[in-house]
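2 proteins. here.
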Amino acid sequence: MKRNLILVTIVVLLAAGSAFAGDSTKYGEGVTLEKAVSIEKLLASPADYLGQEVRVDGTITGMCKKRGCWMQVTDDKGNGVRIKVEDGVIVFPATSMGHTASAQGVFEGLPVAAQAKKHEGEEHEGDKHEACDSKSQGEMIYFIKGSGAVIQS
């Protein structure tokens, strides 16, 4: 009897947790890293993270409206990082603006001049050819080459 009561309690707790968790949608490989790096820390010491797989959490504050090929994730202090994915492989829906997201991928940096040349002649609605990044420090643009994300509905 005691064992049945414990099992029922566990089932009820799991069901309650699922009800309050909200719906989420996985994009690409989703998020497999358990711990996120704060965006503030990532941008304060970018050299410490270059080439590493990182996860960030925050609110979606910007997005490629035409192709869904990038999204800007911003923390509660206003620090943001762009998650750039391969065109057509992962598509972030414009309806995700303002939603909470976790995203992961390899943290990269590009010289500003190389980034501008890479996108020369491209037209992305809503992009206005601003540097495809979140933060330009010195002559580098830092971003996450995204492999996956989870967006809360």
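next one coming up
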Amino acid sequence: METQVFQVALIFGAAFAAGMINSVAGGGTLVSFPTLLWLGRDPIIANATNAIALWPGSLAGMLGFRRELAGSRRWMILLGAPSFAGGLVGAVLLLFTPSETFSAIVPYLILFATLLFMAGEPINRWLRRSKGESADSNIEPGRAWWVGAAAFQFFVAVYGGYFGAGIGIMMLAALSLLGLSDIHQMNGLKNFFALAINGVAAAYFIWSGAVRWDDAIVMAAGAIAGGYGGAGLARKLGRRFVRRAVIAIGLAMALSLLLRR
């Protein structure tokens, strides 16, 4: 009984931290997902459960930038389709991967996601310098750019449906190369595409019975509480502190999981 209470408290705490981190910096998956692994959950079930529990955060993020999405319908349609398709492909690939195989590659996925997260701040600074956060117009991409962007978005979505951490950085970079200049519009589109990717993956995980609902409910409650109530604490600690904490946790988790093999 005490062990069960401890696990529930730990899962809630990890999800609370993930919700808090996502509200100011992103990268909360690097806290919540490894926690489930440390509690002995099957890695595939843990990944699917984590995706379900944190999915509401993508919806909240998109709604937060709904004004910036007002003139982005063309982008949403053209890149939304490969987002849905890739997310479903990634989710199917995950459930077709043997648990032993996925367990073996998880440390490398966490390390890769952590490195992407580390690159996020320099990429955002570059985006702001090269495009200008307050620019009035976007560069119109040609047909070849659209085809390349759709293909890139599909593969990002496959990774997102399969694992997911770090896809925001990839999408921001791609949108910049396509000529978008408004960082707020780019964040809104990023959150919309993440919602599509995570939504279709979550639906497939639910349909396949790959979700551990007792964990998912506790995590969802923790993530919501962290996103709302924890944001103030995170802001007091500072964005830089939170980012450094996420990076440290991600690297530590990747290293510890590698040493456990």
